[in-house]
Amino acid sequence: MRNIFDQYSLHENKLTHSLVSCLYEDKHLLNSFLKNFCPNFFNKKSNLKIEQQTVPGESHLSSDENERKGLPDAVIYSEEKCLILESKISSRLARDQLIRHERTVSRRGFNDIRIIGVVVDLMPNVRLDKLKQITWNEVYNWTYKETKKSEWAKKLIEYFNVAENKMVEDEYLTEGSITEFTGVDFNKNNPFSYLEGKRILKLLIKKLKENRVLEKELNVDLTAKGRGGIKKGESLWDFLIFKSDVKKKFTHQLHLTLGVGETHVNANLTIPHGVKGRFKKNYKKLSWKKFRKIIYTIAKNYKGYFGNSEGFKPLIATVQRRYPSQSAMPIYDGTIKFDIRTAFDDLSNNLKPNQRTQEEWLKAVFEIVKNKKSNIQFQIGAEFFYNKYTMINNKDADTVVCKSFLACKPLIKYLYK
Questions:
Q1: What is the structure's pLDDT at 350?
Q2: What is the predicted pLDDT for the residue at 8?
Q3: What share of the chain is helix, strand, coil (3-state, %, to 5)?
Q4: Distance in Å from the first CA to the final CA of the chain
Q5: Can the peptide bond before residue 330 be classed as cis, meaning omega within 30 degrees of 0?
Q6: Percent of the chain at pLDDT above 70?
């Protein structure tokens, strides 16, 4: 079924239509929008009119989108004042176009005019005395806050999420975003979808890079490029690398891996099979005693951060896989994956239901890592589940991911020495 906001063929017009329709339907939302983005302009808000793809007083000009290109995207006006809304996504704000809009509205008898340009990224070179630029991210963030009070705000947030997925898929939005990270909130009522997972992964990586903790504590390079474009059908994961190794391929060095899957998010330290240099030497020099001590410290770190919550599980995973082609899904030849708490008496005894200590898995992984002669990858980290104990269904989910990476600091520190 077509969404109620899909009245136009162009993505840009669809998004503007969704925003303006919600402002029209919910006067509280309209008042809040004006208070946040155009304060102290309208004296009275009770008699405001709002129209789109037209000029004040002429609400039925043309149904042809091409004929409407010279018109403001929307206008909010009273008897004396007019606010012009001009939105852009893939295209850029043009000063000449804004001046034409202002003149057009002025000829309708409005002397007091303001313009709001809604863009993906601010454009400081486009200046007008009456112009204020805001980003779609700001609009999205404002709308998200309004969802507690407005059903129309909820509809708008849902549409923004779907619209961004579609724009990325159609390569209409190639840089930046129109939404912001608000958590990983997959559940029975909102099941995992590939496009939504892809959108969330992109925004979560972006938010992690805005958090300086990983740079300060782990020397992560927050400016380095990650995986890049994820092709349709590929696993949803990305990575962060460390500053001292930016000249190496990520497959030749330690890196932090973030994945979004159908049942959980995983945040791991990854040691790829092709690791080189001092990492490989230190990796090979690990004694069983030292290895056990490091893993125990990491397990204790996880307990310190998250207790025994059933919303997560700290894991070690070793995997051997091969790819029929560069873009193909992998074939798994073998894997070992286990809860690292099960290797230690004081940690396994506190699990529910009660778990016997099983150090064998940790020893088996140590022997494989120590004596491997094939392309075996090692990961240590945690899975964070979409269940009733979830820790990641809110805007602070990035701090949960950060803590997962920080928990692995003892092994990172050892391999970098």
A1: 84
A2: 67
A3: 40, 20, 40
A4: 58
A5: no
A6: 91
Which amino acid type is present at position 300? K
Alpha helices in 286-416 (DSSP H): 288-306, 345-348, 360-371, 397-407, 409-416
Rounded-to-integer distance, Cα 151 and Cα 154, Å? 5
Q: H or E element: which one contains 333?
A: strand 331-339
Task: Give the pTM.
Answer: 0.85
Three-state DSSP at 286 gives: coil
- Per the CB < 8 A criterion, the answer to whether 241 and 220 are in contact is yes
Q: What letter does residue 226 receive in the DSSP assignment?
A: -
Say what the pLDDT of residue 224 is.
87
- Segments in 259-396 forming alpha helices (H): 277-285, 288-306, 345-348, 360-371
Tens digit of each residue's pLDDT (9 = 90 or more) over 258-305: 999 999 999 999 999 888 777 878 888 889 999 999 999 999 999 999
b/e map of 159-190 (b: 16 or more CB within 10 Å)? bbbbbbbebbeeeebeeebbbbbbbbebeeee
Neighbours of 96 (CB within 10 A): 7
Return the structure tokens found at 109: 């008898």
Give me 4's structure tokens.
């109620």
302: closest CA among 261, 349, 267? 267
